[in-house]
Amino acid sequence: MAKPCPKEFRDDVVAVARKGQAPLAQIAKDFGISEGSLANWMKQADVEDAGGPV
């Protein structure tokens, strides 16, 4: 299993992805993560932003 990335890194990647200036696959590649990880991080960020359970 891969080492977890710091929350600050995840937040930065999600912020870039939310700008919508590039496909998620390209953003994931640029940051050296999988597209699945990015999708999961975005879902988790949506839950956190909505004030839902973490």
From TrEMBL:
GO molecular function: DNA binding; transposase activity
UniProt GO BP: DNA transposition
InterPro entries: Homeodomain-like_sf, Transposase_8
Gene3D superfamilies linked to this entry: Homeodomain-like
Protein name: Transposase
